[in-house]
Design brief:
Structural class: alpha+beta
Bound molecules: ligand LTTK3YTO
Number of helices: 3
Order of helices and strands: EHHEEEEH
Shape: globular
Strand order of the largest sheet: 1-3-4-5-2
Number of domains: 1
Radius of gyration: 16 Å
CATH class: Alpha Beta
Number of strands: 5
Oligomer: single chain
Distance between the termini: 15 Å
Strand content: 25-35%
């Protein structure tokens, strides 16, 4: 595993699937955000603390996904997460959803903007955020 990647594993549950037996498209974002939460905790920025303290709020301003192969109940999935871009006050995260045999099932990307308590965009990301995510900046997108 590339040290600039963070891995998160989950199994597709029955309630993740639609009437056709596939992971419903919207649920991909739930799993992407679960991976993101685990990543943020791993780099010392657990979302529960950020939200409780209220100083660092990072809502999503963009989310996208591509679906290459169906994921079905019981599939073991590894989400490979990397930081795609760090801007003045936002950063982009990419996610690669792989099955146990390495098949690429889906990719996703989210953009997180730092905002102030009043909801306005912050002047910039803090050094704490920048230092925590910089080791995972990967210019070759995992897609
Ligand atoms: C967030 C907003 C208040 C920003 O509004 P505003 O119009 O003032 O923004 P700007 O146009 O000036 O852009 C600022 C900045 O953002 C970049 N940006 C904006 N849109 C996009 C986009 N679609 N794609 C990419 N980038 C975008 C823009 O380029 C600028 O960046 P620069 O680097 O160039 O300066 C307003 O947009 C707003 O309120 N939006 C709604 C947000 C929302 O409701 N999101 C969905 C739910 S939030 C959520 O899921 C969530 C997840 C978390 O993980 C959290 C973690 C911690 C706390 C809270 C979380 C959270 O709420």
């Amino acid at each position: 595993m590339d040290p600039r990647h963070f891995a998160y594993a989950f199994s597709v549950r029955l309630h993740d699937t639609d009437a056709a037996g596939r992971l419903f498209f919207g649920h991909l974002f739930r799993h992407a955000h679960d991976a993101y939460e685990a990543f943020m905790a791993h780099v010392g920025l657990p979302l529960d603390r950020l939200i409780r303290e209220g100083e660092i709020l990072l809502p999503l301003v963009h989310a996208e996904a591509d679906y290459h192969r169906p994921l079905c109940q019981g599939d073991r999935v590894q989400v490979v997460l990397a930081i795609d871009e760090i801007r003045a006050r936002s950063f982009a995260v990419t996610y690669r959803f792989e099955t146990h045999d390495g098949t690429l099932a889906a990719t996703a990307k989210t953009v997180h903007l730092r905002i102030n308590r009043d909801g306005s965009p912050a002047a910039g990301l803090s050094d704490e955020i920048r230092d925590a995510i910089l080791p995972y900046l990967h210019e070759d997108r995992p897609q």
